Amino acid sequence: MTTWRPDPSFYPSPRMAAKAPKETLAYVAAFDPERQRPDAIAVVDVDPASSSYSQIVGQVDMPNVGDELHHFGWNACSSCLCPNAPHPHVERRYLVVPGLRSSRLHIIDTKPDPRNPQIVRVIEPAEIAERANYSRLHTTHCGPEGIYVNALADRDGKAPGGIFLLDHDSFDVLGQWEMDRGPQKLAYDFWWHLGHDTLITSEWGTPDTFENGLVPEVLLGSQYGRRLHFWDLHTRKHLQEIDFGEEHQLVFELRPAHDPTKAYGFVGCVISLKDLSASIWTWYREGNQWAVKKVIEIPAEPADPDLLPPVLKGFNAVAPLVTDIDLSMDDRFLYVSCWGTGDMIQYDVSDPLAPKETGRVRIGGIVSRSTHPKASNGALNGGPQMVEISRDGKRVYFTNSLYGAIDPQFYPEGIDGWMVKLDVGDNGGISFDDAFFVDWPKGHRPHQVRLEGGDCSSDSYCYP
Amino acid sequence: MMDFWPWLSLAGLGAFHGANPAMGWLFAVALGLHRQSARTVWLSLLPIAVGHAASIATVLAVMVAFGAVMDLRSLQLVAAAFILAFTGYLAIYGHRHRVRVGMRAGMAGLAAWSFLMATSHGAGLMLVPSVLSLCLADRVGMAGSLSVSLAAVAVHTGAMLTVIAAIALVVFSWVGLAGLRSAWINFDRLWTLGLGATGIILLVW
């Protein structure tokens, strides 16, 4: 149903969105790595004035087991106010929740009771395979032509992965998005510059190279994703490929500037085969082409091999493993999750080609096992992973699990889930909110966090 | 003496289109903001008006052609059937359409976008009753119908252009876009209701 007025959570520009009311609820994807019980979307109370602050106050279980809930998103967002494709009277009320392993897509209604969301539609993998020829659903974004969902593989679990479209009202699968994919084969993340009519995709691998964990031969052979692809958002044609070279593997999370007039963004590279370092790269316009530059390098830390998992023992070092990044709404601060060392680092990226570190906290980590004031256990495992920033940039939330089959490669004793929150200083600087620590119920591990009404990685804007 | 009301309704519908952010003023303002240029706002309004005019002119041309081979009552029923069918389509499928024009649109792209927006909303269909009544009142024949239709396009587009220019000026120069969040009422729903009412009036008139 359409409404008479635009959804109050839509904002024309990121500047206006930064003035949105504070979120009171967070939705968190949680999955069972044993694939014995259903995965769930948990509802976490993030209102400091509430008596149930920092507690899970609701949960919706999936109808099946083994989905591996991973990333998810809203059916509609601020891009509905764009002038060339206006849909301002759609409601932001449904969460679009894919299963990365099952290829099943769940539509969850948060409106009647935001603390008790309900599944209203389940799209089975066969329907997605039939209509779009894809499987292994990954990222979703609301955008100009409805809901965009990407998939890491075709219906047979092979390359190419790509994007398909869903109608944002009926949730019908509209079909494959690409009209000319050029050399693109692998898929991981995608997002866009609405002001520059450009869509960007990154790469991971085919399911046989990640569903049983990372394959050392593939990694050392530089066969995992290492390229960015630039597309025309409207003609849906591949325009340009940038190869990061054999040294760089797992070029993952894409965070374009929120200001639609700016033509740059950041991408994290998980690991360098040369020295296990992780890196952040900026993409930007150079003449009529896109270019990239490495702007941050986070070195591996020397470590006692006895403390390292088998995959790292031979290196005598713990890799930072930058597995997620997020950019504040004002395009000023970039948050970088180092899942290996346990650091969450804040950079001032006001000059996107010359970031400066402005804050750092440590929690978990392969070797450090740093704890949190509110944790009962004195040695936390897992590390900073999926990170989400409130629209006003004052609060940062993150969880500690990466992916069911990869978690034990780096944390062999398994991961006990947690979710924490950081408070951000007015001019940068980050510190733990000592009162916020979700000791995740055993049996599930938490992954992506989405905030009520939108956050810094769910909406895109057409006006500066 | 020509009736005053059909002309007023042509102008009123033009003003309604002009006020609807989805028909162009918002696009012009967005381009102006992106390029930090008031001149871009004004320049953008012209292709938007031209695209809109081309869309309604096409529909009216088809009607005049039908009128050349059909008696008036039959023409009215055909027009009513078209309008009601279109209303049903909009009510069921909404105003969605594939986006082919982005924020880097040039002038030709803007005109094409405006043409498609006006056509997909059935903008020209809504003008049919007014133009029919003008042709009927003057018993003008084929050549007269053409000139009345051209005048209708001019009045409608002139009103639309005046309103989009006024709103774009006020929004770009003074009030900004924050008001969109509350003031952007559901024009699509109003339009669908209006189109349906027009079809019914034409049917029983």
TrEMBL record, chain A:
InterPro entries: Se-bd
Domain of life: Bacteria
Pfam families: SBP56
Gene Ontology terms for molecular function: selenium binding
SUPFAM superfamilies reported in the protein's UniProt record: 3-carboxy-cis,cis-mucoante lactonizing enzyme
Protein family according to the UniProt entry: Belongs to the selenium-binding protein family.
Entry-linked PANTHER family: METHANETHIOL OXIDASE (PTHR23300:SF0)
Listed name of the protein: Putative selenium-binding protein
Lineage start: Bacteria, Pseudomonadati, Pseudomonadota, Alphaproteobacteria, Hyphomicrobiales
